[in-house]
Design brief:
With 784 residues, this protein is of the alpha+beta class. About 4% of the residues have low confidence.
């Protein structure tokens, strides 16, 4: 039996060259990766495009270089990989590429290639020239029979000017295949794409290692830099060093998850929100994700809210969605096109389509996933544009990334998204509100009670005792108690026990007050009934005898206090409320003498006494506001909470209150917008609105206008008066909402309580950035 052998056609060149690698960026990536693998400290990617007849792409590095044997036995040996065989000059243990076909990326870029190479121990340069077109003339010709010229040079010949290079490689690609496609926009995209080759959280020495140059774009870059400087914006230029400072841009601006897996199989996760650590956990995944134990898995994934996206756009010069999403780094280099705009390698957008408001998609996320491993574990597709080929390790990698994103979602969807205004904040100001802290406590409790997750740390400023304004404080204290017990947090446990004791006292006091109120109501009704009966008997007696007339008149006088009717009822009620205000005002004066302001309280006061007096002052202020409000309210509000059309409620309230204030200040309102259902406390909301009107009156305003509109899903109320306006001595106007802050003889609690009221229903109050020439402009925004 005889043997036969394969013959290799010269057409193989195109199959593993320009037909396999169909993307210009992928081709350049492969060549730059080779420079990294050669331990280059500097890599220059140059485009010489000024001469239309002689345009070139140059990739030069100062790596280890190749000698003649390397060129003949390795570079010219098709599909042979010295990296894979372990005979490469580089000391790197893991390489960016090792398939042995990356060199044919040159064929994708141009028809001719010239290689100059030198190792440090030699005094001459090896010069190799390849005409890729020669392989395309006759498919019947043997691959090995196509000639490639070789000679030696005394020194490097730089196509774009004299340089000093002791060792390394220069690739000179000419006869560009798509020369006309390399316009400024494409070169800018290349600059951005090359930056992604540098992992942002490792290999810091690689920052600035790659330099991009294009002779044609020098003047355009200078013009762009000048215009950017004038406009105080980011200058996006082609020429310059390539860096990846994406996480510096996003630092303290996003909700970020940092995860890693150690060799024991522990998945460590740290979740931060705009610079503040929310929690740190550890989870045993040694069995479920066993393939990743030795892969050096790490990921940093950030959720960008509206504010973070705006910051990114200003700093980077492009919208975040155009930059990309969650990129994959294998052995220190980008796996293309994972994470690029429009790519859904991780399946996030397919998943989001199943529940838009429940899941995060590529448009909201930005980050990197990094792993190390050989071809058996993590293998890129040969075309270099399909991501990783399916292997047990790559499948577990996808599972792990999805697991991390789910943990990020639990916070973003469960906390941030439930506060409709939080997306516009670059700080955790709104996350610090009690309603949002309560949600974080619920999340940390769930993690603490999970059998497979260990909570290593959590934010004690957020996970702690809340105010009694929380809707269900008892349930919150129960959750905090579970966290304290599970985590062995003795201080939190003491705080919970103390809060539970205080809460119990408050509930008992409320119960006693309710009982007294109920008893008084029963007594009042009984007295009214007796008065009615007496009046009826008196009327009957008058019919029987005129002699009873005097007695009847006396009985009427006695009944008047208890019975009352019509307008007399309102007058009596107003008299009572006026007296309450007088008493409360006297109490206010006494409290102000003890606590003139937050920073001027008597230093001899014990902290607990001072806090109690502060609470009394706040309660007293509410009594005054409630009494005044009750006089003007003019309609029933039987329930503590009400779920109804908030816009319609405000309009109805303003309609009534404007008549009350008609002689003091003109209250006008535009109520064209309706239908904004919300759960709220009508009494507290009414008090807040009236407080704003009262402030305008105190500022000598003749008019205050309320404009109600619905914008982007938010109910917006613009309150504009023509009074004195803000005190010019206030350097930071936002301080007017702080507790105790005042430039008058007031307590400084009015606007503070207004702020609390609007925040309690998912809203905010702020000063408009553009204030009127005379007066003040407040903006209230409330999310559904």
């Amino acid at each position: 039996m005889s043997t036969v052998k394969f013959r290799i056609s010269s057409a193989l060149k195109s199959i593993i060259g320009k037909d396999l690698i169909t993307d210009d960026f992928v081709a350049i990536f492969e060549l730059v990766k080779n420079s990294f693998d050669a331990e280059a400290k500097n890599i220059e990617v140059s485009f010489l495009l000024n001469d239309p007849k002689n345009q070139k792409i140059i990739i030069a590095d100062d790596g280890n270089g190749m000698d003649e044997a390397d060129l003949r036995d390795k570079w010219l040996f098709v599909a042979y990989s010295a990296k894979k065989e372990g005979v490469e000059r580089s000391q790197r243990k893991i390489f960016a590429g090792n398939k042995g076909v990356g060199r044919f990326s040159c064929d994708r870029l141009g028809g001719h290639l010239r290689i100059q190479s030198k190792i440090s121990s030699e005094t001459y340069v090896h010069n190799l020239k390849v005409n890729w077109g020669a392989f395309e003339k006759d498919a019947k010709q043997e691959f090995r029979d196509v000639a490639v010229t070789y000679n030696q040079l005394p020194h490097f010949e730089f196509p774009n000017g004299p340089r000093k290079l002791k060792h390394g490689v220069i690739l000179e690609i000419s006869d560009l295949r798509e020369a006309g496609s390399w316009d400024r926009n494409k070169l800018l995209r290349l600059h951005r794409s090359l930056s992604k080759l540098i992992p942002p959280f490792e290999n810091l020495e690689d920052q600035g290692k790659i330099h991009l140059f294009c002779d044609r774009e020098v003047s355009s870059d200078e013009k762009e830099s000048e215009e950017a400087l004038k406009g105080e914006r980011f200058a996006e230029v082609v020429n310059g060093g390539i860096t990846n400072d994406i996480f510096d841009v996003l630092k303290d601006k996003t909700t970020a998850l940092d995860a890693s897996i150690d060799t024991k199989g522990n998945l460590d996760i740290t979740l931060t929100d705009r610079g503040s650590v929310i929690y740190r956990t550890r989870e045993d995944v040694s069995k479920s994700l066993s393939e990743l134990r030795t892969a050096g898995f790490r990921c940093q994934i950030s959720y960008l809210n509206t504010s973070a996206k705006m910051t990114f756009g200003r700093r980077m010069g492009i919208p975040s969605v155009q930059y990309g999403s969650v990129f994959l780094i294998r052995n220190g280099f980008l796996v293309y096109p994972v994470g690029e705009e429009g790519d859904d390698y991780w399946g996030l957008d397919r998943r989001k389509a199943q529940g838009y408001n429940r899941y995060l998609g590529t448009r909201e996320l930005l980050g990197f996933v990094s792993v190390y491993g050989n071809e058996t574990a993590f293998r890129e597709s040969s075309s270099r544009d399909k991501g990783l080929i399916h292997t047990p390790a790559s499948e577990q990698l996808n599972e792990c990334v999805l697991l991390c994103i789910k943990k990020l979602e639990a916070y973003v969807v469960g906390v941030s998204w439930r506060d409709k205004l939080d997306k516009e904040y670059s700080t955790i100001e709104r996350i610090s509100l009690d309603t949002n802290r309560d949600r974080i406590i619920e999340l940390v409790e769930a993690l603490s009670l999970s059998g497979s997750i260990k909570v290593l740390d959590y934010n004690r400023n957020l996970v702690g005792i809340l105010s009694d304004k929380v809707t269900d404080l008892e349930a919150t204290l129960s959750r905090l108690n579970n966290i304290a017990a599970k985590q062995g947090d003795n201080q939190l446990l003491k705080d919970v026990q103390r809060a539970e004791a205080e809460f119990k006292k408050v509930k008992e006091a409320e119960a006693r007050a309710l009982k007294i109120a109920e008893e008084e109501a029963v007594a009042r009704k009984a007295a009214e009934r007796r008065a009615q009966e007496e009046a009826l008997r008196a009327e009957q007696a008058r019919a029987e005898t005129n002699a009873a007339q005097v007695e009847l008149e006396e009985e009427k006088k006695r009944s008047l206090f208890l019975l009352g009717s019509g307008s007399r009822d309102k007058e009596v009620l107003e008299g009572f409320l006026h007296q309450i205000v007088i008493y409360a005002a006297n109490a206010k004066v006494q409290l102000e003498e003890i606590l003139p302001s937050e920073d001027k309280a008597d230093p001899r006061l014990p902290p607990n006494i001072k806090q109690s007096l502060e609470n009394l002052r706040e309660i007293n202020e509410k009594i005054i506001m409630a009494s005044r409000f009750a006089t003007h309210g003019n309609f029933r509000m039987d329930s503590t909470y009400l779920t109804t059309d908030l816009a319609a409620f405000i309009c109805e309230f303003l309609k009534n209150i404007s008549q009350i204030y008609a002689s003091k200040i003109m209250v006008s309102f535009d109520c064209t917008e309706k239908s904004f259902e919300k759960r709220f406390k009508p009494i507290e909301l009414g008090m807040a609105i009236e407080n704003l009107i009262d402030n305008a009156k105190k500022a000598k305003a003749a008019r205050v206008e309320f404009g109600i509109s619905i914008k982007d899903g938010f109910l917006q109320i613009d309150i504009i008066d023509n009074g004195r306006g803000l005190d010019r001595s206030i350097s930071d106007p936002s301080r007017i909402f702080e507790k105790g802050f005042s430039r008058t003889d007031g307590s400084g609690l009015g606007l503070y309580l207004c702020k609390q009221t609007f925040e309690s229903i998912g809203g905010e109050i702020s000063l408009s950035k553009e204030q009127p020439k005379r007066g003040t402009h407040f903006i209230v925004r409330i999310g559904k």
